[in-house]
Amino acid sequence: MSADLIIEVRGLRTQFGTHVVHDGLDLEVRRGEVLGIVGGSGSGKSVLLNSIIGLLQPAAGEIFIDGRLRSRLTDSERAALERRWGVLFQYGALFSALSVRENVMAPMREHLEISHALMAELADLKIALAGLGPEAAGKLPSELSGGMRKRAALARALALDPDILFLDEPTAGLDPIAAGKFDTLIRELSQTLGLTVVMITHDLDTLHAICDRVAVIAEKRVIANAPLDELTRHPHVWIQEYFGGPRGRAALRQGAGSR
Ligand SMILES: Nc1ncnc2c1ncn2[C@@H]1O[C@H](COP(=O)(O)OP(=O)(O)OP(=O)(O)O)[C@@H](O)[C@H]1O
Protein backbone atom coordinates (compact mmCIF):
# COMPACT_ATOMS: atom_id res chain seq x y z
CA MET A 1 0.00 0.00 0.00
CA SER A 2 1.43 3.38 -0.97
CA ALA A 3 2.16 5.79 1.91
CA ASP A 4 -0.26 8.40 0.63
CA LEU A 5 -3.23 6.01 0.93
CA ILE A 6 -5.01 6.26 4.26
CA ILE A 7 -7.74 3.72 3.36
CA GLU A 8 -7.53 0.88 0.90
CA VAL A 9 -10.38 -1.55 0.26
CA ARG A 10 -9.57 -4.65 -1.81
CA GLY A 11 -12.05 -7.17 -3.22
CA LEU A 12 -14.85 -6.26 -0.83
CA ARG A 13 -17.92 -8.47 -0.86
CA THR A 14 -20.89 -7.63 1.32
CA GLN A 15 -24.22 -9.37 1.37
CA PHE A 16 -27.43 -9.71 3.34
CA GLY A 17 -28.64 -13.27 2.95
CA THR A 18 -28.58 -13.90 -0.79
CA HIS A 19 -28.63 -10.16 -1.64
CA VAL A 20 -25.09 -9.28 -2.73
CA VAL A 21 -24.45 -5.53 -2.33
CA HIS A 22 -20.75 -5.36 -3.24
CA ASP A 23 -18.72 -7.88 -5.18
CA GLY A 24 -15.02 -7.32 -5.83
CA LEU A 25 -15.17 -3.67 -4.80
CA ASP A 26 -11.85 -1.76 -4.62
CA LEU A 27 -11.49 1.75 -3.20
CA GLU A 28 -8.51 3.96 -2.46
CA VAL A 29 -8.65 7.07 -0.29
CA ARG A 30 -5.65 9.37 -0.32
CA ARG A 31 -4.42 11.09 2.81
CA GLY A 32 -5.78 14.66 3.10
CA GLU A 33 -8.24 14.47 0.21
CA VAL A 34 -11.96 15.12 0.17
CA LEU A 35 -13.42 12.07 -1.58
CA GLY A 36 -17.05 12.07 -2.67
CA ILE A 37 -18.91 8.76 -3.06
CA VAL A 38 -21.86 8.70 -5.42
CA GLY A 39 -24.11 5.97 -6.76
CA GLY A 40 -27.79 5.26 -7.30
CA SER A 41 -30.14 4.70 -4.36
CA GLY A 42 -29.45 1.29 -2.87
CA SER A 43 -26.10 0.91 -4.67
CA GLY A 44 -24.39 0.35 -1.33
CA LYS A 45 -22.78 3.65 -0.36
CA SER A 46 -23.82 3.51 3.31
CA VAL A 47 -23.03 -0.20 3.48
CA LEU A 48 -19.52 0.58 2.19
CA LEU A 49 -19.03 3.27 4.81
CA ASN A 50 -20.32 0.98 7.56
CA SER A 51 -17.96 -1.76 6.39
CA ILE A 52 -14.96 0.57 6.52
CA ILE A 53 -15.77 1.78 10.03
CA GLY A 54 -16.45 -1.77 11.22
CA LEU A 55 -20.20 -1.63 11.85
CA LEU A 56 -20.67 -4.35 9.24
CA GLN A 57 -18.61 -7.48 8.69
CA PRO A 58 -17.73 -8.05 5.02
CA ALA A 59 -18.26 -11.53 3.57
CA ALA A 60 -14.87 -11.24 1.85
CA GLY A 61 -12.15 -8.75 1.02
CA GLU A 62 -9.60 -6.70 2.89
CA ILE A 63 -9.75 -3.23 4.40
CA PHE A 64 -6.48 -1.51 5.21
CA ILE A 65 -6.33 1.63 7.33
CA ASP A 66 -2.92 3.30 7.25
CA GLY A 67 -1.54 0.11 5.73
CA ARG A 68 -2.83 -2.12 8.53
CA LEU A 69 -5.29 -4.88 7.80
CA ARG A 70 -8.41 -4.19 9.87
CA SER A 71 -9.28 -7.84 10.41
CA ARG A 72 -5.85 -8.57 11.93
CA LEU A 73 -6.02 -5.92 14.64
CA THR A 74 -6.45 -6.81 18.30
CA ASP A 75 -9.46 -5.37 20.14
CA SER A 76 -7.36 -2.62 21.72
CA GLU A 77 -5.72 -1.73 18.40
CA ARG A 78 -9.16 -1.56 16.79
CA ALA A 79 -10.46 0.69 19.57
CA ALA A 80 -7.46 2.99 19.10
CA LEU A 81 -8.10 3.05 15.37
CA GLU A 82 -11.76 3.90 15.84
CA ARG A 83 -10.79 6.97 17.84
CA ARG A 84 -9.06 8.31 14.74
CA TRP A 85 -12.27 8.93 12.85
CA GLY A 86 -15.42 10.91 13.33
CA VAL A 87 -18.68 9.95 11.66
CA LEU A 88 -21.65 12.07 10.74
CA PHE A 89 -24.46 9.63 10.04
CA GLN A 90 -27.20 10.26 7.49
CA TYR A 91 -29.78 11.55 9.96
CA GLY A 92 -27.37 13.24 12.36
CA ALA A 93 -28.21 10.69 15.07
CA LEU A 94 -27.86 13.04 18.03
CA PHE A 95 -29.14 11.92 21.44
CA SER A 96 -32.43 13.79 21.66
CA ALA A 97 -32.51 14.02 25.48
CA LEU A 98 -29.00 15.49 25.72
CA SER A 99 -27.92 19.07 25.09
CA VAL A 100 -25.57 19.80 22.20
CA ARG A 101 -22.66 20.09 24.65
CA GLU A 102 -23.52 16.73 26.27
CA ASN A 103 -23.83 15.15 22.82
CA VAL A 104 -20.32 16.34 21.93
CA MET A 105 -19.03 15.13 25.31
CA ALA A 106 -20.50 11.62 24.79
CA PRO A 107 -17.55 10.20 22.76
CA MET A 108 -15.13 11.90 25.16
CA ARG A 109 -16.74 10.16 28.13
CA GLU A 110 -16.28 6.85 26.34
CA HIS A 111 -12.67 7.33 25.29
CA LEU A 112 -10.94 10.02 27.37
CA GLU A 113 -10.02 10.06 31.03
CA ILE A 114 -10.24 13.77 31.71
CA SER A 115 -12.33 15.86 34.10
CA HIS A 116 -15.92 16.81 33.34
CA ALA A 117 -14.95 20.50 33.30
CA LEU A 118 -12.22 19.95 30.72
CA MET A 119 -14.58 17.85 28.58
CA ALA A 120 -17.16 20.65 28.66
CA GLU A 121 -14.48 23.16 27.67
CA LEU A 122 -13.29 20.97 24.79
CA ALA A 123 -16.89 20.38 23.69
CA ASP A 124 -17.49 24.14 23.52
CA LEU A 125 -14.38 24.48 21.33
CA LYS A 126 -15.70 21.83 18.91
CA ILE A 127 -19.11 23.53 18.87
CA ALA A 128 -17.41 26.80 17.86
CA LEU A 129 -15.29 24.95 15.29
CA ALA A 130 -18.48 23.60 13.71
CA GLY A 131 -19.71 27.18 13.34
CA LEU A 132 -22.31 27.28 16.11
CA GLY A 133 -22.64 30.18 18.54
CA PRO A 134 -22.09 29.55 22.29
CA GLU A 135 -25.86 29.77 22.94
CA ALA A 136 -26.32 26.48 21.02
CA ALA A 137 -24.31 24.44 23.54
CA GLY A 138 -27.06 24.25 26.16
CA LYS A 139 -29.89 23.57 23.71
CA LEU A 140 -31.54 20.25 22.89
CA PRO A 141 -31.32 19.03 19.27
CA SER A 142 -35.09 19.62 18.88
CA GLU A 143 -34.52 23.33 19.59
CA LEU A 144 -32.16 23.69 16.61
CA SER A 145 -32.79 24.19 12.90
CA GLY A 146 -31.82 21.38 10.48
CA GLY A 147 -28.62 23.18 9.51
CA MET A 148 -27.66 23.74 13.15
CA ARG A 149 -28.33 20.08 13.95
CA LYS A 150 -25.92 19.06 11.18
CA ARG A 151 -23.31 21.36 12.71
CA ALA A 152 -23.95 19.89 16.16
CA ALA A 153 -23.48 16.39 14.71
CA LEU A 154 -20.30 17.61 13.03
CA ALA A 155 -19.05 19.00 16.37
CA ARG A 156 -19.62 15.55 17.88
CA ALA A 157 -17.80 13.88 14.97
CA LEU A 158 -14.84 16.19 15.73
CA ALA A 159 -14.91 15.41 19.47
CA LEU A 160 -11.86 13.15 19.53
CA ASP A 161 -9.71 15.19 17.08
CA PRO A 162 -10.10 12.67 14.25
CA ASP A 163 -7.88 12.60 11.21
CA ILE A 164 -10.59 11.01 9.05
CA LEU A 165 -14.11 12.32 8.81
CA PHE A 166 -16.89 10.15 7.33
CA LEU A 167 -19.99 12.03 6.28
CA ASP A 168 -23.17 10.31 5.06
CA GLU A 169 -25.21 12.80 3.01
CA PRO A 170 -24.23 15.84 5.12
CA THR A 171 -26.25 18.38 3.13
CA ALA A 172 -29.42 16.29 2.65
CA GLY A 173 -32.45 18.25 3.81
CA LEU A 174 -30.66 21.61 3.90
CA ASP A 175 -31.72 24.56 1.76
CA PRO A 176 -29.16 25.50 -0.93
CA ILE A 177 -27.72 28.40 1.11
CA ALA A 178 -27.28 26.32 4.28
CA ALA A 179 -25.87 23.46 2.17
CA GLY A 180 -23.36 25.82 0.53
CA LYS A 181 -22.24 27.11 3.93
CA PHE A 182 -21.85 23.57 5.22
CA ASP A 183 -19.72 22.69 2.18
CA THR A 184 -17.47 25.68 2.87
CA LEU A 185 -17.13 24.63 6.50
CA ILE A 186 -16.10 21.09 5.54
CA ARG A 187 -13.56 22.40 3.05
CA GLU A 188 -12.10 24.81 5.64
CA LEU A 189 -11.92 22.11 8.30
CA SER A 190 -10.24 19.68 5.95
CA GLN A 191 -7.65 22.29 5.04
CA THR A 192 -6.98 23.74 8.49
CA LEU A 193 -7.03 20.44 10.40
CA GLY A 194 -5.49 18.36 7.60
CA LEU A 195 -8.49 16.01 7.69
CA THR A 196 -9.19 13.29 5.17
CA VAL A 197 -12.89 13.47 4.33
CA VAL A 198 -14.94 10.62 2.85
CA MET A 199 -18.38 11.87 1.97
CA ILE A 200 -21.44 10.14 0.56
CA THR A 201 -23.55 12.67 -1.26
CA HIS A 202 -26.23 13.09 -3.90
CA ASP A 203 -25.52 16.81 -3.97
CA LEU A 204 -23.94 17.77 -7.29
CA ASP A 205 -23.09 21.23 -5.99
CA THR A 206 -21.16 19.71 -3.09
CA LEU A 207 -19.22 17.46 -5.47
CA HIS A 208 -18.22 20.46 -7.55
CA ALA A 209 -17.49 22.74 -4.60
CA ILE A 210 -15.29 20.62 -2.38
CA CYS A 211 -14.43 17.13 -3.63
CA ASP A 212 -10.90 16.46 -4.90
CA ARG A 213 -12.03 13.14 -6.39
CA VAL A 214 -15.29 11.27 -6.76
CA ALA A 215 -15.78 7.51 -6.55
CA VAL A 216 -18.78 6.08 -8.38
CA ILE A 217 -20.48 2.88 -7.19
CA ALA A 218 -22.41 0.87 -9.78
CA GLU A 219 -22.72 -2.82 -10.59
CA LYS A 220 -21.61 -3.71 -7.03
CA ARG A 221 -18.19 -2.05 -7.30
CA VAL A 222 -16.38 1.24 -7.73
CA ILE A 223 -16.45 1.78 -11.49
CA ALA A 224 -14.48 5.05 -11.45
CA ASN A 225 -12.52 7.16 -8.95
CA ALA A 226 -11.24 10.41 -10.40
CA PRO A 227 -11.41 14.21 -10.28
CA LEU A 228 -14.79 15.45 -11.50
CA ASP A 229 -13.58 16.93 -14.78
CA GLU A 230 -12.13 13.53 -15.74
CA LEU A 231 -15.18 11.70 -14.49
CA THR A 232 -17.62 13.67 -16.62
CA ARG A 233 -15.82 12.26 -19.70
CA HIS A 234 -16.21 8.66 -18.47
CA PRO A 235 -18.31 6.64 -20.94
CA HIS A 236 -20.31 4.58 -18.40
CA VAL A 237 -24.01 5.16 -18.95
CA TRP A 238 -24.85 5.88 -15.28
CA ILE A 239 -22.06 8.46 -15.06
CA GLN A 240 -23.18 10.13 -18.27
CA GLU A 241 -26.78 10.28 -17.07
CA TYR A 242 -25.79 11.56 -13.63
CA PHE A 243 -23.36 14.28 -14.68
CA GLY A 244 -24.67 14.91 -18.19
CA GLY A 245 -28.36 15.27 -17.27
CA PRO A 246 -29.93 18.73 -16.77
CA ARG A 247 -29.07 18.93 -13.04
CA GLY A 248 -25.53 17.68 -13.63
CA ARG A 249 -24.93 20.21 -16.39
CA ALA A 250 -26.32 23.08 -14.28
CA ALA A 251 -24.05 22.18 -11.36
CA LEU A 252 -21.11 21.91 -13.74
CA ARG A 253 -21.77 25.41 -15.14
CA GLN A 254 -22.18 26.83 -11.65
CA GLY A 255 -19.02 25.08 -10.41
CA ALA A 256 -17.02 26.42 -13.35
CA GLY A 257 -18.39 29.92 -12.71
CA SER A 258 -17.46 29.93 -9.03
CA ARG A 259 -13.89 28.75 -9.51
N1 LIG B 1 -29.02 -4.17 7.60
C1 LIG B 1 -29.44 -4.51 6.39
N2 LIG B 1 -30.13 -5.64 6.17
C2 LIG B 1 -30.54 -6.01 4.94
N3 LIG B 1 -30.31 -5.27 3.83
C3 LIG B 1 -29.63 -4.12 3.98
C4 LIG B 1 -29.17 -3.68 5.26
N4 LIG B 1 -28.50 -2.49 5.09
C5 LIG B 1 -28.57 -2.22 3.78
N5 LIG B 1 -29.24 -3.19 3.11
C6 LIG B 1 -29.48 -3.23 1.66
O1 LIG B 1 -28.24 -2.99 1.01
C7 LIG B 1 -28.43 -2.21 -0.15
C8 LIG B 1 -27.53 -0.99 -0.10
O2 LIG B 1 -27.97 -0.13 0.93
P1 LIG B 1 -27.28 1.26 1.23
O3 LIG B 1 -28.03 1.86 2.40
O4 LIG B 1 -25.82 1.10 1.35
O5 LIG B 1 -27.60 2.08 -0.10
P2 LIG B 1 -27.19 3.56 -0.47
O6 LIG B 1 -26.40 3.49 -1.73
O7 LIG B 1 -26.55 4.23 0.69
O8 LIG B 1 -28.63 4.18 -0.80
P3 LIG B 1 -29.29 5.63 -0.57
O9 LIG B 1 -28.62 6.54 -1.57
O10 LIG B 1 -30.73 5.41 -0.92
O11 LIG B 1 -29.07 6.04 0.87
C9 LIG B 1 -29.93 -1.86 -0.20
O12 LIG B 1 -30.55 -2.75 -1.10
C10 LIG B 1 -30.40 -2.10 1.21
O13 LIG B 1 -31.73 -2.47 1.24
From TrEMBL:
Name of the molecule in the record: ATP-binding cassette domain-containing protein
Keyword entries, A-Z: ATP-binding, Nucleotide-binding, Transport
PANTHER family membership: PROTEIN TRIGALACTOSYLDIACYLGLYCEROL 3, CHLOROPLASTIC
Superkingdom assignment: Bacteria
Any one GO molecular function term: ATP hydrolysis activity
ABC transporter domain: residues covered: 7-244
Stored SUPFAM superfamilies: P-loop containing nucleoside triphosphate hydrolases
Species per Swiss-Prot/TrEMBL record: Alkalicaulis satelles
